[in-house]
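REQUEST ID: PR-0412
SUBMITTED BY: lab tech R.K.
PRIORITY: routine
TASK: structure prediction, single protein chain
INPUT:
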Amino acid sequence: MPTRGVVYIHSCPPAVCPHAEWALSGVLGSRASLTWTDQPAAPGQLRTECVWSGSTGTGAELAAALRSWPMLRFEVTEDPSQGSDGERIAHIPGRGVFRTTISANGDIMVPESQLRELLAKAGSAESYQYAVHRLLGTAWDAELEPYRTAGDGAPVTWMHQVG
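STATUS: complete
OUTPUT:
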C-alpha cells in the first residue's frame, strides 16, 4: 500500500550531506537533491527535511540507510496506511535509535500488553514512571526539540519512490 512520511535530518556535517542524499536516493530509486540550511542549534552543521512517498515500510528502510552515518541526528516518520500503523524512528549520536508506532494524529501508541508488563515488573512508582518515559522516547524528544524548533520555516523537498 502506498504511504508517505517525512525525513528530518536535524544535524549533518557538510561533508556527509552528499552521502545522506545518496542513501535516500538508493532507497527511493530516484535522485534526491535536498536543500540544506544551517542548523542554529549545532553551529557548523546543516539540516534538511523532505516529504517522501512510497510503499509501506519505506520509512524503516530510509532510517536504516541513514544509520550508516552515526553522527547524523535524524527522524523518519511514516504515516499510517490501510492495514499498517504509522511509525517514527529517531536517531541521536551516542543515544542510538528510538522506534515507535504512531497513530493517525501522531500520538505514540503503546500496546496494552506492554503496559501490563510494566505494571507487573515495576517495583515502585518511580520505576514505573521511568519505564513509561522509555516507552514514550522522552529522552530522545528532549534532546531533539532544540533541533526541531531551529528548523521552523526551513524549505522542504518532495521525493517519490520509483517503481
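NOTES: The mean pLDDT is 90.
REVIEWED BY: pending
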